[in-house]
Design goal:
Elements: H1 2-23, H2 33-42, H3 52-62, H4 70-102, H5 106-114, H6 120-134, H7 138-154, H8 156-160, H9 168-187, H10 192-207, H11 217-225, H12 248-266, H13 271-276, H14 291-298, H15 313-329, H16 333-347, H17 349-366, H18 379-399, H19 409-422, H20 429-439, E1 446-449, H21 452-464, E2 473-476, H22 483-492, H23 494-498, H24 501-515, H25 522-538, E3 546-548, H26 550-555, E4 564-568, E5 571-575, H27 591-599, H28 603-625, H29 629-642, H30 647-658
Helix pairs in contact: 1-4, 1-7, 2-3, 2-21, 4-7, 4-9, 4-18, 7-18, 7-19, 9-10, 10-12, 11-17, 16-17, 16-18, 17-18, 20-21, 20-27, 24-25, 28-29, 29-30
Length: 663
């Protein structure tokens, strides 16, 4: 039996991994993709909370000689980890359904318990009657487990973690390993202590990857302290309580022992200060400066301003969660989810409350987190939802045995409705956007931007790992609000930063107060921030052409006074003297970018499309100001190719038609 489930798990891994490879992104994607890839490749320190386990495993993966680039290798790595989680998920479902299969119905179990004082012959007769009513065949349980595992593999959000580098792929694997071994410890009394120890070890390792592992703790404590449920075993007698971890007192004592494997797993966090002290190329947080900096980093303190900060956010996120549910459950799964809730409550309060607490805990946290990429924070709730679906299918299989083979409709529907959304095989948006932006930057340029999601993160990887445009000085405007980033820039660009030493030293005094939670003057720190921005520009202007992106122009209107902002491509060049500057869009190749836009969807896709189109519209407007109608027309036409709904480009093209402008 064990061999059979191992072979099935391996088969599920291969099927899901094959689909993930087909849909994997070939290059960089949005947000943290470039930074994580750069950190894995160079063995550095990632953004909070550091994700040391992911970085170490990712670095080892990049050493494999099978892939054309580190970024593609790491995108495949995400698929590999997620596919492994599918295999582990199957094992949990198979274990859980076998447990449910041995539980009698509530009414009949009461009769059995009442008859324990009667003759063995009567008891045996009643047990046999119950078995004939409720026990599914091994084949039926396997079919249900495979169906739900493939539904898990092809649910929209789970699949999304498998096509591009992200820490949630490893989080899914760790989450499923924790669930599996805790379920084994509670539902299968063989090797109970060992299973608890392994679960605790994986819990610690999971924390060393992602701190949202804390959302599992309420469910884990419920499973751990729940009293043993009464059920009938094959020997026709009530199952005894666990012989290994019985009373509440012994459980508390054993819990203290379980802290040892937990701390062993958690100790992976020591990588952060040890590696940071060696000053790697990517040293986010610079946590070796002190224990306070280490805690600041691993607690994700800089992100806490977005947690439970806006009462309106939870409504928007909750609506989003329910909008996502049909794509996680293949629509039909919603019905079996409801059935699963009812059956779990009737047959096993422990499982019902454990999973319900898992879902509610996840939602309570995620819906109050004000970030645009909230989808992945729902994965824990989706895992709990899918387990309830498995219980619902178990009930349907018992009630209507002829339906069993139709359960494969669920993963088939999920595959069909989610394939297009998760197919990133043609996704070149981020690298193409980055190349388009850099195309217009003169040699040795300095550019200030806060477009982390669209290109700054990607440029870190492209520059430092692949050697792309290493002459360009990139400064993330928002990261300048962190003390560690000043040190990072001083390492990357020592000559340019040295020129601004006085401004930096003055600014860091207030910035340290802000970061350490001490009293600081908001007006003072903002004034010093603007002073530093102006110093970076003015003191490097003679040797470095300076550019800013639209977001910086709009958000920091007090800065860069006395400079003309010349729109050229996807950025603005700062020009000190009123000298006419020719701009052009004819040298920008947008074909791959436009093709990728058509093949992908999502709010970040919409955002980068709008931003690119606006950049070309601004270029067209500036060309008109300079009297270059030809370049203006080209810029507006390219803007419309990128975003056919851009009203400014449409109005401009219509104006050209009115004056009968021709090539």
């Amino acid at each position: 039996m064990i061999k059979k489930t191992i072979f099935i798990s391996a088969g599920l891994f291969l099927i899901s991994f094959f689909i993930y490879i087909l849909t994997a992104a070939p290059d960089l994607t949005f947000t943290d993709s470039g930074e994580l890839a750069a950190v894995c490749s160079s063995l550095g320190i990632a953004h909070p909370t550091g994700y040391p386990l992911f970085i170490l495993l990712g670095h080892l993966w990049t050493l494999l000689p099978f892939f054309k680039s580190d970024i593609y290798s790491l995108n495949i790595f995400a698929g590999f980890l997620t596919a492994l989680s599918v295999s582990v998920f199957f094992q949990s479902i198979f274990l859980l359904l076998n447990y449910f299969n041995k539980l009698p119905s509530r009414k009949k179990s009461q009769k059995i318990l009442q008859s324990r004082q009667k003759k063995d012959k009567v008891l045996n007769t009643q047990v046999n009657q119950i078995k004939s009513d409720i026990i599914l065949t091994e084949k039926a349980i396997i079919i249900i487990s495979i169906s739900v595992s493939l539904l898990y593999a092809f649910s929209r959000t789970i699949w999304a973690q498998a096509v591009a580098i992200e820490v949630y792929s490893l989080h899914l694997l760790m989450l499923n390993l924790i669930l599996l071994f805790f379920l084994k410890a509670r539902l299968n009394q063989t090797n109970q202590k060992l299973n608890y120890i392994l679960a605790s070890l994986f819990l610690g390792l999971s924390f060393a990857n992602h701190m949202t592992t804390i959302l599992l703790l309420p469910m884990i404590l419920v499973l751990y302290f729940w009293e043993q449920e009464k059920k009938i075993n094959k020997s026709n007698s009530a199952l005894p309580k666990s012989e290994e971890v019985q009373s509440s007192q012994s459980k508390i004592q054993f819990l203290a022992i379980l802290f040892i494997p937990f701390l062993i797993g958690l100790s992976i966090y020591l990588y952060l200060p040890l590696r940071a002290n060696n000053f790697p190329d990517f040293n986010w947080g610079w946590v070796s400066r002190g224990f306070d900096k280490f805690l600041y980093h691993i607690s994700g303190k800089q992100y806490q301003v977005w947690m439970f900060s806006d009462s309106s956010v939870w409504k928007e996120n909750l609506i989003k969660f329910f909008e996502m549910i049909p794509y996680e459950t293949a629509f039909l799964g919603i019905i079996t989810f409801i059935i699963g809730l009812i059956i779990s409550y009737r047959k096993s309060k422990m499982i019902f409350y454990g999973l319900a607490i898992l879902i509610v805990t996840c939602l309570s946290y995620a819906i109050n987190y004000s970030i645009h990429d909230i989808d992945s924070y729902f994965v824990t709730a989706f895992v709990g939802t899918l387990i309830f679906i498995a219980v619902g299918l178990f009930y349907l299989a018992r009630k209507y045995p002829k339906m069993i083979n139709s359960f494969f409709l669920l993963p088939i529907i999920a595959l069909l409705i989610n394939y297009s959304y998760n197919d990133r095989s043609d996704d070149l948006l981020v690298p193409e956007y980055t190349k388009m932006l850099f195309k217009k930057l003169e040699p040795n340029a300095l550019i200030l931007s806060a477009q982390w999601d669209y290109w700054v993160s990607a440029a870190w990887y492209m520059q430092k790992i692949e050697g792309f445009r290493k002459d360009v000085i990139i400064i993330d405007k928002e990261l300048l609000r962190r003390t560690w980033y000043i040190g990072q820039l001083q390492k990357w660009y020592p000559e340019q930063m040295k020129k601004c030493k006085n401004e930096i030293d003055d600014y860091l005094i207030d910035l340290e107060l802000f970061e350490s939670g001490k009293d600081y003057n908001p007006a003072s720190i903002q004034n010093k921030f603007i002073t530093l921005l102006n110093a970076l520009v003015s003191k490097n202007y003679d040797k470095h052409p300076v550019y800013i992106t639209l977001d910086v122009l709009e958000s920091e209107q007090d800065a860069f006074q006395g400079y003309e902002k010349v729109a050229d491509g996807l950025a603005f060049k700062l020009i000190k003297d009123k000298i006419a500057s020719k701009v052009k869009a004819s040298d920008l190749n947008i074909d791959k970018f436009v093709s990728s836009l058509k093949a992908n969807e999502g709010h970040l896709v919409d955002g980068i499309k709008t931003t690119a189109a606006i950049g070309l519209v601004n270029t067209g407007r500036y060309a008109l100001m300079q009297g270059d109608k030809q370049e203006a027309r080209i810029a507006f036409q390219k803007a419309l190719k990128i975003d056919p709904t851009n009203r400014f480009a449409l109005e401009a093209i219509n104006n050209f038609k009115k004056i009968k402008f021709e090539d």
